[in-house]
TrEMBL record:
GO MF annotation terms: actin binding; Arp2/3 complex binding
SMART domains from the UniProt entry: ADF (SM00102)
Subcellular location(s) per record: Cytoplasm; Nucleus
GO BP terms in the entry: actin filament debranching; negative regulation of Arp2/3 complex-mediated actin nucleation
Family label: Belongs to the actin-binding proteins ADF family. GMF subfamily.
Main location: cytoplasm
Zinc keyword on record: no
Keywords, in A-Z order: Cytoplasm, Nucleus
Organism field: Papilio machaon (Old World swallowtail butterfly)
A GO-annotated cellular component: cortical actin cytoskeleton
Domain ADF-H stretches: 1-130
Name of protein: Glia maturation factor beta
Length: 131
């Protein structure tokens, strides 16, 4: 499903301990492959609202610095499936069928889904992770 370059990109995202690391991926229908769209460092989730396409699904691997109430700091890696409500149905089905296998392939312990680009915020992510 993933080519070697894209596997290296996801491994690179996993191995760096930093704030706001992001790897956005898309499904290339013509070759039935998941490919890297964007690799970003020091990016807030809110900034992705301006970067990601508003009508096309994306898989997002995101890691950031999370401060806990007890003083601990962690760097969770999240796999976010962004699928806009107005995306073509064929794309939604293709991405939905790929999400779990891709999340397992990159070793993402958390699988989250967002339907509207403006929901993609730090508050949204913190709420999901603190459940």
């Amino acid at each position: 499903m993933e080519n070697a370059r894209d596997q290296n990109a996801t491994n690179s995202t996993q191995s760096r301990v930093n704030t706001g690391l992001c790897c956005a991926m898309w499904v290339n229908e013509s070759v039935s492959d998941v490919q890297v769209d964007e690799e970003l460092e020091s990016v807030e989730l809110e900034e992705l609202q301006d970067i990601l396409p508003s009508h096309q699904p994306r898989f997002i691997i995101y890691s950031y610095k999370m401060e806990h109430n007890d003083g601990r700091t962690s760097f969770p890696m999240c796999f976010i499936f962004y699928t806009p409500r107005d995306a073509h149905m064929e794309l939604q089905v293709m991405y939905a069928g790929t999400q779990r296998a891709l999340a397992a392939a990159v070793g993402a312990p958390r699988l989250l889904e967002v339907r509207e680009i403006d929901e993609l915020t730090s508050d949204w992510l913190n709420e999901k992770l603190n459940r």
